[in-house]
Amino acid sequence: MLSCDICGETVTSEPDMKAHLLIVHMENEVICPFCKLSGVNYDEMCFHIETAHFEQNELERSFARINTIQIRTSDNRKDNTLQCRVEVSSSVHSACASNHPKISAQSLPNDSALKHKAFYSENLTESRKFLTSKEKECDPSKIKGSIYETTYSPPECPFCGRIEDCSQDMENHVKTKHADLLDTPSEGHDQPLYDCPMCGLICTNYHILQEHVDLHLEESSFGQGIDRVQCSRDLELAHQLQQEEDRKRRSEESRQEMGEFQKLQRQYGLDNSGGYKQQQLRNMEIEVNRGRMHPSEFHRRKADMMESLAVGIDDGKTKTSGIIEALYRYYQNAATDVRRVWLSTGVDHFHSSFGDKGWGCGYRNFQMLLSSLLQNDAYDDCLKGMSIPCIPKIQSMIEDAWKEGFDPQGASQLNNRLQGTKAWIGACEVYTLLTSLRVKCHIVDFHKSTGPLGTHPRLFEWILNYYSSEREGSPKVVCTSKPPIYLQHQGHSRTVVGIEERKNRTLCLLIFDPGCPSREMQKLLKQDMEASHLKQLRKFVGNLKHKQYQIVAVEGVLSSEEKVVSICICM
User: Fold this and answer.
1) Which residues partner with 11 through β-bridges?
2) Mean pLDDT of 295-308
3) Hey, which residues are catalytic here?
4) In the beta sheet, which residues pair with residue 89?
5) What residues have CB less than 8 Å from 549, skipping those under 6 apart?
6) Is 90 exceeded by the pLDDT of residue 204?
């Protein structure tokens, strides 16, 4: 690339420079490019520019000679833009020394070159004097940073990093070694432009565009790698959080289950808080502390309890006898709204005491049932010489039945242990105990309601059939030979001692509840018993609305062989 010393225009070859000087600066009128002076010849114009516009001319020619464009991609490979750097190849004085001879000797025709050379030689000393005077006139502080103090920096190749002594050598190096990267368009043709498909940047060279796009792809790949790493970390964190949440949930569920289990243990007397004896003593101490029991009474009851436990027989302090007989008299003389009534054999009522309050209903109902069997001669063979056992003795008898092989599943649920606990018993344990005593009985389940509003009319019908199966004529009051029925439902058990058929054909059960104290039951023994006293015994269809019911009905006596068969069936 060649630059005109007069106007600064850049051309590509020496013939083009000669044509430019001939057409622009020889044939046309010569005009000063700085002050528009005209009407002089070429030599005079050169002298004018050298003397009047020395500084401006030197600056223009210096920048005109800086024609090396260095295209460099940013080192951090992020902005991906083309940077052009213009380097000053030499100081003003070296430019003056090197450029004028080169242009005047090679670019001009022979005659013009000789004239220009002579003119330059004649005015060189004068020009130097002018430069020296200018330097002296200028304040050094003001000159700082101007072109006079421009330090020489060897140009560096923007493609391979090679350093040359001057810009001309660097230009030749770039043209020879990196011509394929320059891709300089020929004069008179439009330079092709290339748009980046990713960011829209316009590039003049296809190879530069390719490198630029490669940077985009590398950044995209790097970003995708970062995204994959971040995604992996997010998944790992989510997995850890899920595991922690599952662990807390399982811990909370385990804690709730343990709480429910402990609650059930307390409810069913399996919390190792002691049995009948411990509760009896503890409750009597509370009564003494509250002033409702004298200390002497406490010691007397304690002695009676210890004696009862020692012999295994109930002390009878919660027993009420003669109620069935009193009911017979009442129905004979009163109860005009009752059409017929069926009563079981004689039954003693037992209610809960300090020692079994809250959990002993099953044991008390067994005592009621056993009291009826002991009064029935048909059961003398299997119950001969037996008395009403106390609650700890009943627990021991059930454990013995388990050891014989009865109800292994129920024994497992209660850990094969009842003594010393407040464990509840139900229909299965009563059946097991009676069968071990060779009393023939069976369990009947009423597992769902058979009437409106959750009632169980079929339960009443079954009990009516049980008591009315014996044909004893048609009296109003029928004293049957049937033992009472053990009735179990969720959370409680009672004893059915009879059933009424009222004049409107509705049925009503007569039930002994172990939760009813003796003082209330003793009201039924009065000669002038009123209908209101029977309220605690009467249960109509609408009064029994539990979801499920079980009954244990006694049918007779088992032989020894039948007892063994029953054990085999249980296994």
Assistant:
1) 2
2) 93
3) 361, 492, 513
4) none
5) 445, 446, 456, 459, 487, 488, 489
6) no
Residue-by-residue DSSP string for 319-362: EE--HHHHHHHHHHHS-TTEEEEEE-S---EE---TTTTTT-HH
- Asked if 439 and 382 count as a contact pair (C-beta separation under 8 A), the reply is yes
Residue 189: φ, ψ to 5°: -120, 145
At residue 496, what are phi and psi to the nearest 5 degrees? -90, 120
Q: For the beta carbon of residue 446, count every other beta carbon within 10 angstroms.
A: 19
What pLDDT is attached to residue 59? 56
- The closest alpha carbon to 212, from 73, 69, 84, belongs to 73
What 3-state class would DSSP assign to 39? coil
Q: What is the sign, positive or negative, of the torsion defined by CA atoms of 456, 555, 387, 527?
A: positive
Q: What is the pLDDT of residue 263?
A: 77
Amino acid at 264: L
- Residue 177 has which token pair? 């070694």
What is the rounded average pLDDT of the residues 497-505? 94
Residue with tokens 């809960």: 352
368-413 pLDDT per residue, tens:
999 999 999 999 989 988 999 999 999 999 999 999 999 999 898 8
Does the pLDDT of residue 268 top 50, yes or no?
yes
The DSSP result for 238-266, as a single string, is: HHHHHHHHHHHHHHHHHHHHHHHHHHHHH
CB 529 within 8 A of CB 359: no
- Give, in order, the Cα–Cα distances in Å from 86 to each of 93, 96, 125, 285: 19, 19, 32, 109
β-pair partners for 502:
338
Taking Cα atoms as reference points, which of 395, 394, 402 lies closest to residue 367?
394
Choose between 153 and 543: higher pLDDT.
Answer: 543
Q: Which domains does the chain have, with CATH numbers?
A: 2-55 (3.30.160), 318-570 (3.90.70.130)
Q: In a 3-state reduction of DSSP, which class is residue 461?
A: helix
Distance CA 43, CA 22 (A): 14
Contact yes or no for 394/385 (Cβ under 8 A): no
Percentages helix, strand, coil for the chain (3-state, rounded to 5) are 55, 15, 35
| Amino acid residing at 196 | C
Size of the chain in residues: 571
Q: Return the closest-CA partner of residue 546 out of 460, 464, 467, 453.
A: 453
Q: Report yes or no: 433 and 401 within 8 Å, Cβ to Cβ.
A: yes
Taking the C-alpha atoms of residue 276 and residue 253, their distance in angstroms, rounded to an integer, is 34
Q: Does residue 487 contact residue 493 with C-beta atoms inside 8 Å?
A: yes
d(CA 300, CA 318): 16
Rounded CA gap, 418 and 407, in Å? 14
Nearest 5 degrees, angle CA 471-CA 474-CA 479? 70
Instruction: For residue 535, give the nearest of 520, 551, 517 by alpha carbon.
Output: 520
DSSP state, 485? Answer: E
- Higher per-residue pLDDT: 231 or 378: 378
Confidence (pLDDT) at 60: 57
